[in-house]
Specification:
The complex is a heterodimer of chains A (76) and B (383). Chain A is mostly helical and 76 residues long. Chain A has helices spanning 3-22, 49-58. Chain A is flat, with a radius of gyration of 17 Å. Classes of the chains: A mainly alpha (76), B mainly beta (383). At the A-B interface, helix 1 and helix 2 of A face strand 1, strand 2, strand 4, strand 5 and strand 6 of B.
Chain lengths: 76, 383
């Protein structure tokens, strides 16, 4: 990926974070039906964990909310 | 009358157990194996059954255990000795993780620890972790911190001889001992902030830092040089990694969720990586959810990477492992999840999910991943 695309990714991340910060408001317990939905869980819930392990082996990067950071060779 | 009712009240303690079972299959192919110096087959299949059990004994104490086996069929490791044999082609990795956590009396702080162990023919990993989390009183914010250490041993021979014997080098390079150490240690620290932004949005921020030390090269990876000579891969004795992940989950309308994730990663091997992932679960009915997803990834190459026969003999560190090369990758696929409502039974079937992913790397590597996920739960009153 070239430098322009990397900058674009960084700006996208900043934009999303800024948008999220501006959207902040108090949520009462009875208003939590959407944020408590199982598909809104943070991290890599359910069947996603296996793919995360594979990506740690096949790519140089790891961590940042992913479930696996060590504990195996992956040298095949 | 009121007094009689109050005296009849008896506090009951519920214990809950959740069990998840996964069956996964992975297959890949390409012609850039590090075992043969950046050329040669990378054909690999992994069958991976796994289980996770969470037992919540009461409101405060939770025990966790997970484990699994990876059955690995690898054409590249068969080339360590260039003698094709089914015995060296098939390997297995067993792994387990046992943990305990306790919710403190303020009902906001949770502390815990865990022990991890994994073993394969040429690798053993022992790990331990401590974790802490705090959830705000109104449940809108969660902070977490996690520390892990791993002590790995790269020697071969556990399955064949019952104990580790020696490092395995490529057959033609066994005339000398290339490495001084067979240990690899990792120290990982990760943090999390999960904040509910409004009725439909939640943001997670996940910084981390990881430090590895010891023998970071793989003893059976070959490197070929411009003068046609050959050596075992050699990498620096330490590596610092810094990831920062941001996740934004949004519930749009009444049936559509958008899970977006970005990660920046840097390490002192020279790799800088960006990951952008978007998942879009769509609730077709109350019990059926379709989740298409796409993930884009790019990384710069490690300072020590060069392809086959392009390394200079005077270099101090060298590898032809394409996992450390500069590349982009693309993943896409779909998950189908069925989660019925039937909590009235002692053992409840909670959900089943089938997930398929296609993965392609710009160096030509292609992979397919299939995962089937089952989740069950049980709940009973304790005396």
């Amino acid at each position: 990926m070239n430098i322009m695309n990397r900058k674009l990714l960084k700006y996208c991340a900043l934009f999303v974070t800024a948008l999220a910060a501006l959207s902040c408001e108090s949520v009462k317990p009875y208003q939590r039906v959407y944020v408590n939905d199982s598909e809104m869980k943070p991290g890599q819930p359910g069947a996603r964990g296996f793919e995360e392990s594979v990506q740690v082996y096949r790519e140089g990067a790891s961590g940042g909310g992913s479930s696996k950071t060590s504990g195996g060779c992956g040298c095949n | 009358m009121g007094q009689r009712l109050d005296s009849a009240y008896k506090k009951q303690v519920l214990s809950k157990t959740d069990v998840q079972v996964l069956f996964s299959f992975y297959t890949q192919d390409n012609d850039h194996s590090a075992v043969t110096g950046g050329i040669g087959t990378e054909n690999l299949q992994v069958y991976s059954p796994q289980f996770f059990i969470n037992h919540q004994r009461d409101s405060f104490n939770t025990v966790h255990i997970d484990g699994g086996v990876d059955i690995i069929s690898s054409a590249s490791t068969d080339n360590i000795d260039f003698v094709v044999s089914s015995a060296s082609k098939v390997d297995a990795r067993g792994h387990t993780n046992i943990g305990y956590s306790r919710l403190l009396h303020d009902k906001q702080n949770r502390v815990g620890g865990n022990l991890m162990y994994s073993i394969e023919s040429d690798y053993t990993s022992r790990g331990a972790g401590l974790n802490w989390s705090k959830t705000s009183a109104d449940q809108s914010r969660a902070l977490s911190a996690n520390a892990q250490v791993f002590f790995d041993d790269l020697r071969w021979g556990r399955f064949e001889n019952g104990k580790p014997i020696k490092l395995i080098y490529p057959e033609e390079l066994r005339t000398k001992e290339w490495f001084d150490s067979h240990q690899r240690n990792s120290f990982n620290f990760s943090f999390g902030l999960y904040q509910t932004l409004n009725k439909r949005m939640a943001l997670g921020i996940y910084p981390g830092v990881s430090y590895q030390t010891g023998e970071l090269a793989t003893p059976f990876h070959r490197v070929y040089f411009t003068d046609d000579s050959e050596r075992v891969e050699n990498l620096p004795g330490s590596r610092m990694k810094i990831p920062l992940g941001i996740q934004l989950n949004s519930f749009i309308g009444s049936r559509w969720i958008l899970r977006s994730y970005y990660r920046f990663y840097w390490d002192d091997f020279g790799i800088e990586a960006h990951t952008l992932a978007v998942e879009s679960p769509i609730k077709a009915t109350r019990v059926l959810t379709f989740t298409p997803f796409v993930r884009l990834y790019s990384q710069t190459k490690a300072n020590y990477f060069k392809p086959y026969k392009l390394h200079d003999i005077n270099q101090q560190f060298y590898t032809s492992d394409y996992d450390l090369s500069g590349f982009t990758s693309f993943k896409t696929g779909i998950g189908i999840r069925y989660a019925p409502f039937n909590a009235q039974h002692y053992i409840t079937f909670k959900e089943v999910e089938l997930r398929y992913a296609y993965y392609k790397r710009s160096d030509g590597l292609q992979a397919h991943m299939i995962t089937t996920y089952f989740s069950f739960g049980s709940q009973r009153k304790r005396k």
